[in-house]
Amino acid sequence: MAEYSWAESAVNALSDKGVLAGVGNNMFNPEGVVTREQIAKMIVSTLGELDSDAKAEYVDVDTSGWAYKFIATANKIGIMNGISDNEFAPLAAVTREDLAVILYRASLKNGKKYDAKKSDFTDITNISDYAIEAVEYMAGAGIINGF
Hints:
The protein is mainly α. It has helices spanning about 5-15, 35-45, 70-75, 95-110, 130-140. The protein is globular. The mean pLDDT is about 90.
């Protein structure tokens, strides 16, 4: 984390709250890819919404795996969907647009209202239809930005 001192206090605070656990061996791996199962754990933990009775029927999610209850809860509360009706892709990298949608849905669930949209991205036509609203509102609020 030496090269990422700007993020160290946030990472430590989220770790102290159990939202982040690192990658093992007392390592965080700030340049690593965040997977869909990892973001499900982070967002459900942040919301304090873990539902031990939640169920999800994805062929690629092990019901006895560490991430199952987080994925099932994220799905149940409407924060995350699968990539299809029967696949979640737990080990796939979270895309920027997917992260915008997840954060947008989670913040709406927590009562956040958005007023301003930002849609002057030069590549806005490359953003998937399902993510446009989330990207515009999250950018308008200054939560995300382009390159």
